[in-house]
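I'll show a typical protein example:
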Amino acid sequence: MLHEIDIKLLPAEAKDETAIRRKAASKLQLREDQIQDLRVLRRSVDARSSQPIFLLRVAVYVGESYQAEPAILSQLKSVADRPSVLIVGAGPAGYFAAMELIEQGLKPIVLDRGTDVQTRRRDLRAIQQFGQVNPHSNYCFGEGGAGTYSDGKLYTRSHKRGTIDKAMQLLVEHGASSEILIDAHPHIGSNKLPNIVANIRATIEHYGGEVHFDSYVTDFILHQGRMLGVVVNENQEHRGEAVILATGHSARDIYYLLHRHQIAIEAKPFALGVRIEHSQQLIDRIQYHLPERGEHLPAASYKLVTQVAGRGVFSFCMCPGGLVVPAATAPGEIVVNGMSLSRRDSPYANSGTVVAIEVEDLLPFAQHGVFAGLEFQRSVEQAMFNFGDGSQKAPTQRLTDFVKGKISSTLPDSSYIPGLVPAPLHELLPAAIYSRLKQGVADFGRKMKGYYTEEANVIGTESRTSSPIRIPRNAETYMHDGVQGLFPCGEGAGYAGGIISAAMDGQNVAKGVKGFVGNR
């Protein structure tokens, strides 16, 4: 007989199998030896009281044993001789689409403008240490996409978009810890995710798919309203039964290419703001109500939201025990993001803190038409860069000075390797963004006592929360209504917001491609 029960444990007991078994037996009024098998299904921290506890949902097997589902990879077959489908982009949307295509009996050919995940490290070092931005290989572009070297958080609220369990299981089968299957806020870490990404590539190639790096799509091959393929690096053609466009939220050139071919794209809401960095010890103290969190509790996180003048102001991509990193995708701009390693043991905590932007907020950029949001985004990033010395040093204020509208004479220590420069963010940011952020962080300080402190850095600018442009598609077929064989996918198309939601979108789109190819 199978029982699913909820139990509460102290932090020191949460990963102790003996303690879990003892608590489960007590709740079911059984002897411990009557439990034949036990599996933790879900694990989360409840820090609302003075003593943080772990909440576990546990499957308890009495008189029967647990039977594992067969591995997904064990059911795959070679697709080397099957019809080909082109995938532009080797991020989570592209790679999970490729895996699903193999399962559906189609051959994926993945094309990415950047380098493989290991070679990509050199370009990340160049931007960190020397301020050199490679427009094809950086924190956003290259194998694994933006998530690989910017944290590897797997939490998503997009439960209606697909099967989260399948995406998670595939990550585990490629080397991720099985704990991501049970944690309420699963996380891999930017030190471990690259190997997992490389393992996924190896699987794609093992089953007959192809992955090509340094393959920058410079044109589309179109005929009578149908997408036949793409041109790479100005002169190399690739053709397939369909094209999945999974280029990520920062591939601005792709939007211009679509527009040039008169393929419909549309403006969409996005968000823009700053990244705020605190001491992790401070965040732990606030969230856990303890002077020290101890070895059994994870680095504490937070999620904050408020409304100011009709727009949401909210924390985004919070990185406990993390680092702030430079995420520009072109020379002449300052963009920052956050990441954490698997242990989340940095002494800093950071989070994007952004303001929602609606299409009607972009009237000063109306002359750019559908690209108004993109040009607004770019203008802020360039203003940040132009204030500095030509490097990737980021304009920064102490949090209290940011609210007061004064330049900081000194700045707290930071994880941001390129360095910080005191700056008037209250002048560099658009007035509507600054005024809402100013009120928003004051609200956060009231909600989270200790958050509002002079020992926090406000770093500009967090501008790539999502794409300001959507590539429309049919809700049932996943195909662009105006172009046969074109399948917009993932964050760059406007249908995802993180690693897992992008992965699920890739899986869904691949099924749509199967329906299209199978019906031809």
Remarks:
- Residues 124 and 138 are 6 Å apart (CA to CA).
- The chain has a mean pLDDT of 95.
- The chain is about 30% helix and 25% strand.
- The first helix runs from residue 17 to 28.
